[in-house]
């Protein structure tokens, strides 16, 4: 027997869900409209605004840049984040307790402050190329997700299994890849997805680091909205939504997405 | 011999990245506001003596607080329904709350431009039902920024609170009812106190998120509803006033960190599980 919910409460929840899902449906609808202005419900169905995206060079270029950045930043963050998460769990006694706080700093410091500070110190101060500055910014941004999510998976891993393998003669590095990593696969997948979504949608950090010729898709959308208020914005928004969902689906198929099923 | 350093070696690359590219640059940004040629605290005197800048700070605090309050109420009520929903429906409701979070801030703020614009959906509807002849100008007001921000952050609040509310055992609620508490009494005296730590986590997430946001105030507030994030960008990239921008950045960091620390303390004190 469960608690009875009052109808008023259920009505409130239903309204909140309409409020949450409605605007996204409106964007999808507006992207399909055959008109030259943004409208909903769509008048006449057409995919021409999706074709339009690829006719605009700036969009074509920034889609590629955003995807490159998201994959590279996520990959790099996993590459340095997995060893860090492993160290935090396996060598807890060796390491100071504040170290885990260090990896949360990119979430604690406002993103826009991080972007501005990187512009001053790295992009202008050290004259790093634009793409490299963006990559550093995005890697920092997604690192907390990688360290924390994988750390949480490792917390429930029984390290005596690893010790058993090593004492039976398996080299430590091989043990890590064949014993430890497969056991925290769900954590790695979750971290990958969270990191990818964060990177591909980022505005506040990228804002300061994009420059002549190199920009990211969300920044390009932001610039486009202020100049042209046409359905291309809706269609490119929908494209960004589907890119995110597609990457999630691919990652799920290849690595197995068990964490959402819980 | 080497074993003593294995942990450090593994954690080193990530630690270096954060130290070199986050701690140092942000410290440098804050540092420049204290070594100004005009005096030690001159940039802060400039900031707080300008009526316009004080208004921006005040507006940002106000918008963030209102957004936090509204999403606390909406998120709590919705999360309660979700946490008591039957299995399959619950998964669907959780996925429906996750989906908006997969979509970026730009797309979700842009949606409100279509809804609230002069020829937007809401105005067309209001004119259509004859409520008004002239479309209202709803964009570039504090209201439009708050609506979009509540929309942005409510899913986060729901997801934070569903986890907390699910952990309240059904037995506790049943016990309260069988001891004679009315449903609203149970809600006030049992469910709410147990949810307080989750409410605080959610409030911190929403407050800091709104306080430091850029895209939403930029798209829906424009010049007229300047907030700390958009103001920082304007000072830095339009006026090239880097000391001014650094001062805004420093104020943002101080307020964010202060809120996080204060709320974590309060959460510890209010947690009924620890007292």
Short structural description:
By secondary structure, chain A is mainly α. Helices cover 74% and strands 0% of the residues of chain A.
Description:
The complex is a heterodimer of chains A (262) and B (275). Chain A has 13 helices and no strands. With 262 residues, chain A is mostly helical. Chain A has one domain (56-261): MetI-like (MetI-like fold, Orthogonal Bundle). In chain A, 46% of the residues are buried. Residues 257-262 of chain A have low confidence and may be disordered. Chain B is an all-alpha fold and 275 residues long. Chain B has a single domain, classed as Orthogonal Bundle (MetI-like fold), CATH 1.10.3720.10. In chain B, helix 7 (142-166) crosses helix 9. Chain B is globular, with a radius of gyration of 23 Å. Chains A and B meet through helix 1, helix 3, helix 5, helix 6 and helix 7 of A and helix 1, helix 3, helix 4, helix 5 and helix 7 of B. Chain A: It is found in: Cell inner membrane; Cell membrane. Chain A: The chain crosses the membrane at residues 7-32, 69-88, 95-118, 130-155, 176-200, 232-251. Chain A: It is a multi-pass membrane protein.
Task: Walk me through the topology.
The complex is a heterodimer of chains A (262) and B (275).
Chain A: H1 7-31, H2 48-55, H3 57-90, H4 99-102, H5 105-108, H6 111-125, H7 130-155, H8 159-167, H9 172-183, H10 185-200, H11 206-209, H12 217-227, H13 231-255
Helix pairs in contact in A: 1-13, 2-13, 3-7, 3-10, 3-12, 6-7, 7-10, 8-9, 10-13, 12-13
Chain B: H1 3-32, H2 42-49, H3 51-83, H4 87-102, H5 105-116, H6 121-128, H7 142-166, H8 170-178, H9 183-211, H10 215-221, H11 228-238, H12 242-270
Q: Shape of chain A from CA axes?
A: globular
SSE order of chain A, as H and E? HHHHHHHHHHHHH
- The low-confidence runs of chain A, each spanning 5 or more residues with pLDDT under 50, are 257-262
> Can you summarize the main beta sheet of chain A?
none
Q: Average pLDDT value of chain B?
A: 90
Determine the fraction of residues in helical runs of chain A and give it as a percent range.
over 70%
CATH class of chain B: Mainly Alpha
CATH homology group of chain A: MetI-like
Q: N- to C-terminal separation of chain B?
A: 45 Å
Strand elements of chain B, count: 0
Shape of chain B: globular
CATH topology of chain B, which one?
A: MetI-like fold
Proportion in β-strands of chain B? under 5%
- How many helical elements of chain B? 12
Helical/strand content category of chain A: mainly alpha
* Secondary-structure arrangement, i.e. CATH architecture of chain B: Orthogonal Bundle
Oligomer category: heterodimer
The pair of chains with the biggest contact is: A-B, 83 and 82 residues
Pfam families (chain B): BPD_transp_1 (PF00528)
Main location (chain B): membrane
Family (chain B): Belongs to the binding-protein-dependent transport system permease family. CysTW subfamily.
InterPro entries (chain B): MetI-like, MetI-like_sf
């Amino acid at each position: 027997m469960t608690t009875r919910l009052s109808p008023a409460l259920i009505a409130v929840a239903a309204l909140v869900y309409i409020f949450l899902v409605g605007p996204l449906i409106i964007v999808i609808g507006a992207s399909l409209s055959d008109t030259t202005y943004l409208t909903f419900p769509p008048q006449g169905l057409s995919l021409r605004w999706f074709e339009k995206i690829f006719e605009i060079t700036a969009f074509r270029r920034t889609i590629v840049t955003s995807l490159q950045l998201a994959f590279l930043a996520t990959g790099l963050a996993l590459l340095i984040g997995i060893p860090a998460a492993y160290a935090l769990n396996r060598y807890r006694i060796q390491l100071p307790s504040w170290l885990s706080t260090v990896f949360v700093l990119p979430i604690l410091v406002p993103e826009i402050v991080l972007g501005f500070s990187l512009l001053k110190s790295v992009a202008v101060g050290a004259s790093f190329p634009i793409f490299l500055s963006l990559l550093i910014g995005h890697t920092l941004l997604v690192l907390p997700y990688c360290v924390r999510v994988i750390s949480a998976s490792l917390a429930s891993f029984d390290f005596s299994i690893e010790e058993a393998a090593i004492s039976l003669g398996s080299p430590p590095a091989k043990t890590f890849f064949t014993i430890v990593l497969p056991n925290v696969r769900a954590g790695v997948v979750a971290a990958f997805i969270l990191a990818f979504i964060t990177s591909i949608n980022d505005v506040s950090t990228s804002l300061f680091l994009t420059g002549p010729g190199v920009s990211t898709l969300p920044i390009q959308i932001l610039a486009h909205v202020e100049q042209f208020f046409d359905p291309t914005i809706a269609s490119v928004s929908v494209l960004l939504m589907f890119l995110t969902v597609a990457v999630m689906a691919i990652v799920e198929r290849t690595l197995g997405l068990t964490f959402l099923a819980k | 011999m080497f074993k003593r350093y294995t942990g450090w070696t593994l954690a080193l690359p990530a630690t270096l990245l954060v130290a070199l590219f986050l701690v140092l640059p942000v410290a440098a940004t804050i540092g420049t506001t204290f070594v100004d040629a005009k005096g030690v605290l001159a940039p802060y005197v400039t900031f707080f003596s300008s009526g316009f800048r004080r208004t921006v700070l005040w507006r940002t605090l106000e918008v963030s607080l209102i957004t936090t309050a509204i999403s606390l109420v909406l998120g709590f009520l919705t999360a309660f329904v979700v946490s008591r929903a039957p299995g399959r429906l619950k998964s669907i409701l959780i996925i429906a709350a996750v989906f908006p979070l997969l979509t970026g801030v730009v797309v979700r703020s842009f949606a409100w431009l279509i809804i609230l614009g002069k020829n937007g959906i809401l105005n067309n509807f209001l004119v259509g039902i004859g409520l008004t002849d002239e479309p209202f100008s709803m964009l570039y007001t504090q209201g439009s920024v708050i609506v979009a921000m509540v929309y942005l952050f409510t899913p986060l609040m729901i997801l934070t609170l569903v986890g907390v509310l699910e952990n309240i055992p059904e037995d506790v609620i049943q016990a309260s009812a069988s001891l004679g508490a009315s449903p609203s009494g149970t809600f006030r005296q049992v469910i709410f106190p147990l949810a307080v730590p989750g409410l605080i986590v959610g409030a911190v997430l929403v407050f800091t998120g709104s306080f430091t946001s850029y895209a939403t105030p930029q798209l829906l507030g424009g010049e007229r509803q300047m907030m700390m994030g958009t103001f920082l960008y304007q000072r830095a990239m339009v006026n090239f006033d880097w000391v001014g921008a650094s001062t805004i950045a420093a104020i943002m960091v101080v307020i964010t960190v202060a809120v996080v620390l204060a709320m974590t303390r309060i959460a510890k004190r209010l947690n009924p599980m620890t007292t």
